[in-house]
Amino acid sequence: MCLKLQQLRRTLLSSYRILLKYKAAKYGLRKAITEAKTQYREKLDSFYSTADAGRIWQGLQHITDYTTTTGTTISPSDILPDDLNTFYACFETSSDNTERRHTHIGTSQPPFFLPIVSSAVVQKALRKINTCKAAGPDNIPWQALRVCATELADVLTSTFNLSLSQSTVPICFKTTTIVPLPKKSSCNLP
């Protein structure tokens, strides 16, 4: 039906100069569009004319153009981790390798590198803290962290490195305290 409508539209456009041929083509196109709409309406009505839930769902899927896709599963491969390691290793430079610790897990496992956080990196991060923000869940103001960056850097560095070596995040880093703040009302109640 769509091809027929396209052909009639092309005929209409090509016959624009000749008025009688143009009017006939325009009438034919309008009639074909009306017939196509009628057929489509009847098709949709057939989905909803019965009390069958399956047909109703088919109608909804037809209207929304919903198609069920068969999920493609990726078969697990033994070489996938090696491929990923090779891919990401090409982005590391030799200077990065000097800052990493080489650790073996068992004898059959390939070696992996644990990142080591240096005290200078932690101190730099503490000095970059925005002091205009509110205090954290432990109510330590950001200004204090920024001022005491040199003293806190060693303590936090050992905590970060221990967390990385154990592959766990300390519970105190996971907990948060949510304090609801009331909205300011526009009118003052007595």
Automatic annotation (TrEMBL):
It comes from the Eukaryota. This is Reverse transcriptase. It comes from Hemibagrus guttatus.
